[in-house]
Amino acid sequence: MKVKDEGPKWVEMPSISDSTLNSIEPGESYHDLGMRFPDAPIPRTKSDVIVHRATLEDVTGISQLMNWVSNGDIVIIEMTGLMSRDMELGLAVGKIQDFVEGDLSGQLVRLGSARLLLLPPTFEGVKMK
Question: Which of 32, 79, 93, 121 sits at a 20 to 30 Å CA gap from 24?
Fold first, then answer.
C-alpha cells in the first residue's frame, strides 16, 4: 500500500505571532527573512558579507546606509521617491558618495535610473575588456 504524499510538514513556532506576519505558503519562491526575523541571532565571521536592500525616502536614512557600508556590508538603495526632488536627491547622493568613496575608499555604482550599489573597500569592481 502506497502512503499518500501530504506535502511539506510545517513546524509551529510559538515565538512568532501569526497576527503580525503573513504566513509562508508551500511553493513560495521568495521569503523576506529580514521582515520575519529582523534581529536573527546569526553568528557572523570576518569573511561573511551581508547584502542590505533599502528604500531611501529622504536624507534621514543616510546614516543607516553609512553604518552598513562601514561594517563591510553591501547596500543596494532604491531612490524612486527622491527622484522628483532634485535638491534633496543631489544632497543625498553627494553625502553618500563623499562617505563611501572619500572616507571609506569604497565604490558607489549606479544601477539603472533609481538605484545605487554601495561597495565597501573590501570589494573591488572588475573592469571588463
Answer: 79
